[in-house]
Specification:
The protein is built from five helices and no strands. By secondary structure, the protein is mainly α. The chain has a single domain, classed as Orthogonal Bundle (Non-ribosomal Peptide Synthetase Peptidyl Carrier Protein, Chain A), CATH 1.10.1200. Helix 1 crosses helix 2.
Length: 108
């Protein structure tokens, strides 16, 4: 179930990035770097943040956005944000840290 959520979030994030950067043919993956590969500066990151907040109906803290360096960082953050509040019919048995712990533990 976590893999399905990860894939779903990745696909949504990729679509958002493609719309913002006009890079459908680029082949965006979780390893795609925001600055080096997509050339997202301050304005591009702000646009990305607004789109992510709108699509995922969340509010991204400024500190989180500054620490995202790849698409995978965004996906990991969003997965943790969503998985902590999702109620599954059976116990997953895994503790998922809240987004604030992602910022401390990811080293970004």
């Amino acid at each position: 179930m976590e893999l399905a959520l990860n894939t779903s979030v990745l696909n949504r994030v990729v679509l958002i990035v493609e719309q913002i950067t006009y890079t459908e043919e680029f082949g965006i993956t979780s390893a795609t770097r925001l600055a080096e590969d997509l050339h997202l500066g301050r304005f591009g990151r702000a646009k990305l943040a607004l789109s992510l907040e709108e699509v995922f109906e969340i509010e991204l803290p400024d500190e989180a956005l500054k620490r995202f360096s790849t698409i995978g960082d965004i996906v990991e953050y969003l997965n943790r944000y969503y998985l902590q509040d999702v109620e599954f019919p059976t116990c997953i048995g895994t503790y998922l840290a809240p987004p604030s712990e992602f910022l401390r533990s990811s080293g970004h």
